[in-house]
Amino acid sequence: MSRARVMSLCMLFAFGACVDHAPSWADFVANDMTAGTGESGDGGAAETTSPASTSDEPSPATGEPEDTTDATSTGEAGSTASDAELVQPRILAVDVPAKVHLAGPVPVTVTTEGASLVRATLDGAELELLTDQGGGVWTGAAPCYGAVDNGAHVLEVTATRGPLAHVWPPVMFEVAAPAPGDLAWGRLGPSGSISRRVVATPEGDAIEVGAILIDGALRPSIRKRRGEDGAEIWAEGTIVLDSREGAVDAVALTPAGEIWVAMNVRQADNKWRPRILLLDAEGHETGVEMPTDAGSTVRGIASDDAGGCIAVGFGASGYGDTDIKVWRMTAEGVAVVSAKGWDHVPNGNQALKHTFDDLAFDVVIKGGTAWVAAASAGEHDGVWMESRGVLVPLDLETGARLDPVIVQEVSGGWRQGMYLGAAAHPDGVVVVGYGATSDGTSQRIELALYDASGARIWWVPEAAADVAYGTGVAVSAHGGVIAGGVVKVGGVLRGVVLGRKGLVYEHQFSSGLDASAVYGVAVDPWDQVFPVGELTSAGVRYARAALVRQ
């Protein structure tokens, strides 16, 4: 297959949910950001929790309070009194809901006398210490992650004071959450808009980035949606981040709650330039911005533990090929590298330098290493001109390449592919993209998990279709993998959300004749899924965000 044909296929499946909107290679190099598709819908699930209280004379279901017992010292600072001088702690009541229907923190309230510390376990696992509210009342929370926790659970509570303890009988509660894949809510953006990526906040809300249509051109935008119902939170609603044409293509949260965004804008000279800047928690510019030049495109960004960022994309090398580009800024606002290039050179063979076109789409930080999800088109086996997904480890601080560089494996006649999204997983790094036949006429979403040595330890190819590609990936608290993407179903392109690796569900972003696409997914602190993308209805494109139960 010719190099032009390979790169054309790369662009077709990476950047257009609708074939009619897919940019040509020339458009792509010029970074025409207007390509795309979309979706809508609504729905929800109501929460109903009835409190179940155990008092000093609990019901037979919970048993009688146990006698006070001596316990191993809790190491309470400053406790020098003898046992006789200590006040015997007592638990008077433990309150939890009898039934839980939605993911989230399950409230726990414990009423005590004489306790200096109250702790609890859920199904034998230690929870965070309960908080003293005064007057003998202590509060805390047990986690519920949705349908994965459906069934009965046991909460055990202990109150201590120095070496003395009172253990309450086990308290039972039940989780009966909606089925995985159920739609909680769906929200449309303004007509002509698009959403590219999403990130979940620690509070369970969603920050959605993309572009809105103003005076006939897309402008970079950001909005925050409430996790409960998808309503916009900020007083300004959707915030336009640049007056020039363009879109925000990546977003990341800092540990302090500030927001890194990576966008591409068209300058007055008609050249596209990346903008990488730090916003405050309300979506306003802080004055921290990475210096950039025109000529490159940024596609992915990640925040480090200190609040700095690393961003990735692609641009011309100056030698006739396209290279991965890397930008790095510290938490102190110090620019480290700008558009630093990386060129795929298989086995260090310098004769092949600048013979591969390399493009980066996402980046994730794990263990001090920045892992870049990308694609590389060239003669991978010395004969075949093909596109393959690559996962490139870089030194977080310098952008220098580390080992090993991972190349998507061939599987029978499935020789082509790209990696378009990445996420940290307890066992390594998980990537999503697509695999394709040699001629590109059949595609499938592919998910793969690689460990630090570069070994592929898990791999899932989805069903084949005329068009199918994964765009974003997230990981649940239990190690499950959630992928977003696009699949052609019944002649219509539809956004999909897939639960895999211990999760088994599929959610379609649209129904009927409405075309749609999912470009990004994120999980909230309780593993509920925020997918974002677009929906096209009656020929009009709309940004769409949703909450999908898990």
Automatic annotation (TrEMBL):
Region (Disordered): 37-84
Signal peptide extent: 1-22
Record-linked SUPFAM superfamilies: Calcium-dependent phosphotriesterase
Organism in which the protein naturally occurs: Nannocystis punicea
Residue stretches of biased makeup (Polar residues): 47-57, 70-82
Superkingdom to which the source organism belongs: Bacteria
Protein name: Uncharacterized protein
Record's keyword terms, sorted: Signal
